[in-house]
């Protein structure tokens, strides 16, 4: 178990972030042990044609048999708008000591693939991760990011309405908060107490975490990676519900949109799920919002829509 000890000022410094590089590295676990990630099986099926192009010797060398991943591939994101290019550029400046230390944390030794001149090893590492990003994530990143952003919007609403303790306790069954301490129960035998000391805690939703994760190196800034909500529905095409009177009232398309907005989503995500154009979706969303059935919140570059109380009542929830 990892315990993060917070003072009162630390509680107010809890913030969220999204790490594209972190998603790539955590996604490597699904490549190594596909059966452990059933919700991401559709993603694995989609990327199967490009997997022979990947430098799997390097990529899988970052993951051990317990599915631990080297810390340097999971940077602490500065905001929900962190860019992969920024993160990989920072990784390219990694020191030999940090590279070897993080690998030893994971494997107990440095895998042979990472032996050799530091500059050459880092260049191959950066190239392998960049290629994995471009081939396996970029084609699906809008959809993935929409799920991650919707999760953060939801957590923010919970914190505002029920308090930060309720929000923290609801991140995962392996995370609890007693008003001062955040306890993260991990599958590993690691047990330690880590005072926050004014550094703040960054909460990072992920598509590739079943319970929760923290840095293996206790000297790194406090980060909690937790499972994002809505993963199960990410790859599915929304069914056209038989909404009966609601469909007669709103029309088939708007009734379908209302049913699909049980969780916050962007117009781009809805268009992907429903198989229609974003412009058509936006027209219907504006009508539903003017009618008081939807609320919206700007999140970074996206506008996320979700059902209002009236919309929840009409949808039967």
Automatic annotation (TrEMBL):
Source taxon at top rank: Bacteria
Annotated source species: Winogradskya consettensis
Any GO molecular function: DNA binding
PROSITE patterns per UniProt: HTH_ARSR_2
N-terminal signal peptide: none
Gene3D superfamilies named among the record's database cross-references: Winged helix-like DNA-binding domain superfamily/Winged helix DNA-binding domain (1.10.10.10)
Keyword Transcription: yes
PANTHER family from the UniProt entry: ARSENICAL RESISTANCE OPERON REPRESSOR ARSR-RELATED, HTH-TYPE TRANSCRIPTIONAL REPRESSOR CZRA
InterPro entries hit by this protein: ArsR-like_HTH, HTH_ArsR_DNA-bd_dom, Metal_resp_trans_reg, WH-like_DNA-bd_sf, WH_DNA-bd_sf
Keywords noted in UniProt: DNA-binding, Transcription, Transcription regulation
Domain named HTH arsR-type: residues: 234-317
Name of protein: Transcriptional regulator
SUPFAM superfamilies referenced in this protein's UniProt entry, alphabetically: Winged helix' DNA-binding domain
């Amino acid at each position: 178990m990892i315990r993060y000890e917070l003072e009162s000022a630390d509680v107010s410094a809890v913030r969220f972030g999204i790490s594209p590089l972190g998603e790539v590295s955590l996604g490597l676990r699904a490549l190594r042990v596909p059966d452990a990630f059933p919700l991401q099986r559709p993603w694995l099926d989609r990327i199967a044609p490009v997997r022979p192009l990947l430098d799997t010797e390097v990529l899988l060398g970052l993951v051990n048999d317990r599915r631990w991943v080297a810390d340097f591939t999971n940077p602490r994101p500065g905001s929900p708008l962190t860019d992969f290019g920024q993160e990989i550029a920072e990784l390219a400046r990694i020191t030999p000591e940090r590279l070897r230390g993080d690998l030893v944390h994971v494997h107990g030794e440095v895998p042979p693939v990472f032996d050799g001149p530091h500059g050459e090893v880092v260049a191959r590492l950066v190239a392998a991760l960049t290629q994995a990003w471009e081939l396996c994530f970029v084609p699906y990143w809008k959809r993935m990011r929409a799920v991650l952003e919707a999760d953060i919007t939801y957590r923010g609403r919970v914190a505002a309405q029920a308090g930060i303790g309720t929000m923290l306790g609801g991140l995962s069954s392996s995370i609890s908060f007693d008003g001062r301490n955040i306890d993260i129960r991990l599958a590993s035998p690691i047990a330690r107490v880590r005072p926050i000391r004014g550094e703040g805690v960054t909460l990072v939703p992920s598509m590739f975490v079943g319970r929760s994760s923290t840095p293996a190196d206790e000297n790194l800034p406090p980060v909690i990676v937790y499972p994002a909500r809505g993963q199960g529905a990410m790859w599915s095409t929304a069914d056209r519900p038989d909404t009966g009177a609601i469909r007669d009232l709103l029309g088939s398309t708007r009734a379908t949109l209302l049913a699909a907005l049980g969780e916050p989503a962007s117009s781009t995500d809805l268009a992907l799920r429903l198989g229609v154009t974003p412009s058509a979706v936006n027209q219907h969303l504006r009508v539903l919002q003017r009618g008081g059935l939807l609320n919206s919140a700007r999140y970074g570059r996206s506008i996320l829509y979700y059902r209002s109380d009236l919309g929840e009542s009409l949808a039967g929830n």
